[in-house]
Structure formats: structure tokens, C-alpha cells
Amino acid sequence: MAKLSEILSIVRNLPRGGQGDSIDNAYTDRFLTFVINYYRAKLIEQDVNKGKYLTQFYAQTLGKVRLIQSSRIDCGLPDCDIGDSILRIENPLPKTIDTNDKNLITYVGAFDGSQAYQRTTFHTVKYDAYAKFTGGRTKYYELDKYLYIINPPTKNLKYITITGVFEDPLKVNEFKNTSCDDGDGCFDPFDIEYPLGLKYLDTIYKLMVSSEFRFNNILKFDTTNNSQDDNQLQK
Q1: I need a surface site. Which of 107, 136, 154, 166 has the fewest CB within 10 A?
Q2: Do 135 and 70 fall within a single domain?
Q3: Which of 112, 131, 164 is the last residue of a domain?
């Protein structure tokens, strides 16, 4: 894998479609990252929908994910606030890439990787307790951007880890650095290892060159949903 800063450097030296010069000064790092993420998501979606195996280059681990006690309102079930049977992650889960069928959360479990929890759904979790052989197993389900843990292995469970294929790799690093304050523990968002194999990066470069002329029509796209022209922002 390559660092995002290295990928951006290559992209900036790509020729602009039909305009002679390079992309270098046409767009900000923020905007180019948005475009790279878009093509990455499309390539992964196509591979998954064709039944292709996802390599380790796609996935990211969220690190030490803190759990809190769930409430009845949070989890949507009538008995969430009874005992310590249901926990939820403290912060919203970064969005995974959309596919036809496959869920792209690839691991939920013990922080050291020693125990993977079984996936269930919000619609079936109420019946899971009655399963003869698996009713007492630790399970998880997703609801409204949060992940819930059913039957945790210990009442004092405070952390788990989650691995998946997420839509925006930078959002994963923001999730892992939610305690960043006044520069302590902060990270350079453009210095991450970008989760994609090199052969797919070559495809992205070609796609960006062939469709670059269309970028001019979306330069004012608000990439952070903050009602500002983010393409005027600098790295």
C-alpha cells in the first residue's frame, strides 16, 4: 500500500484531460481525496458484487473501540436496560461501502483478536435468545450508525475492536483519534496508509485522467457538509 500523501503527489502530476497541463494546481488535496475515495468505493463495490475475494488491502481496523451501557431508547429493544446484557459503541461507526448483499464489517470481537463475535440483525436479535445452541453466545448487530453487543463475555467489557471496509479511510482515522486535543495525539490525515492495492490505484489514476474534465462541474461540491466551498480550503 502507499500513503495518501504519495498518491496525491502522483495525482497532481497526472495530465489534465484535454488541457495540456497537469492537475497540480487545479484542485485541493481535500477535493482530490474525495474523488479518489469515490473511485475506490466503486471498484470495491464492483468486485464484491461479482463475488471476488476482498484482500487485506481493503480493510481497516478501528483500534480500541470503547463500549458504554445501552439504553432502551438507544437499542430499540424492550429489555436493553435490564442488567448488563447489551452494550453499544460510544461513537457512531464510519460508513461501510454499499454492496448488493455482503456486509463489509469483517471482524467484531476481542481487542486482541482472540474471540470473534457472531453477527445478527436488529430484526432477529429478539429471537436469538431462544436458539438451543447459540442463544447465550456473544453477538452484535448494527442500528442507526451504532453497533450493539449482546451477551458480552464479561460484565466489565470496556473495549472491542472492529475491522471493515469503510467508505472514507480518513473517517476511520478520525474515529481512532476522537481524543485528539490541542495537538496531543493528532495525526496528519494525508499521511495514512491508503487501504487499496497498487494495481487498483493504477486504475484510479486512469479513471481520473479520462474523466478529469468533469471535475470542473463539481468544484463547488461541499465535501464536508459545512456549507462552505471546501475546494478553496488548503491542506
Answers
A1: 154
A2: yes
A3: 164
H, E, C per residue of the chain: CCEHHHHHHHHHCCECCCCCCECCCCCCHHHHHHHHHHHHHHHHHHHHHCCCCCCCCCCEECCCEEEEECCHHHHCCCCCCCCCCEEEECCCCCCECCCCCCCCEEEEECCCCCCECEECCCCCHHHHCCCCCCCCCCEEEEECCEEEEECCCCCCCCEEEEEECECCHHHHHHHHCCCCECCECCCCHHHCECCCCHHHHHHHHHHHHHCHHHHHHHCCCCCCCCCCCHHHCCC
- What's the predicted TM-score (pTM) here? 0.78
- For 108-160, how does the pLDDT look when each residue is reduced to its tens digit (9 = 90+)? 999 888 899 988 887 777 666 656 556 678 889 888 889 999 888 887 899 99
> How many domains are contained in the chain?
2
- pLDDT (tens digit per residue) in 37-56: 999 999 999 988 888 877 77
